[in-house]
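Renewal narrative, Specific Aim 1. Our central claim is that a sequence can be written position by position from structural information alone. The example that follows is taken directly from our test logs and has not been curated for this report. It begins with the structure tokens describing the chain, in the order in which they were read.
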């Protein structure tokens, strides 16, 4: 599944910093923790996000395809050229690469280790969106 196809059903992982910190504290106390752990507070698609906003806001939210992978790659290259010596911890082009990887499926984590420490109160994407309405 790729951006070229405009797949509105591509699943993406989202996790809040608070959920990450909570899980990380459990990992820090576990002498037997593996080197890599994969977590996601919620796994949703762009279509799911639009439906969630429709439920929360009461107005219909629709998807808008702003372009394919080629356009995004070109924008990333331009942004990198314009900010080669940026002191920013996370320059704009890096965020664009993150979106590219999430939307293309390359950033999808599998399997998830969410249940390793018994955490069950993960923050949903809709709960985060509710803070914006």
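The sequence written for that structure reads:
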């Amino acid at each position: 599944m790729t951006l070229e196809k405009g797949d509105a059903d591509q699943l993406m992982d989202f996790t809040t910093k608070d959920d990450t910190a909570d899980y990380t504290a459990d990992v820090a106390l576990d002498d037997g923790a593996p080197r890599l752990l994969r977590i996601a507070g919620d796994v949703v698609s762009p279509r799911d996000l639009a439906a969630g906003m429709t439920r929360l806001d009461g107005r219909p939210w629709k998807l808008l395809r702003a372009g394919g992978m080629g356009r995004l790659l070109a924008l990333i290259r331009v942004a990198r050229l314009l900010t080669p010596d940026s002191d920013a911890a996370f320059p704009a082009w890096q965020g664009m690469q993150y979106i590219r990887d999430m939307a293309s499926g390359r950033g999808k984590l599998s399997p998830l280790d969410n249940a390793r420490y018994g955490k069950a109160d993960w923050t949903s994407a809709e709960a985060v969106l509710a803070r914006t309405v």
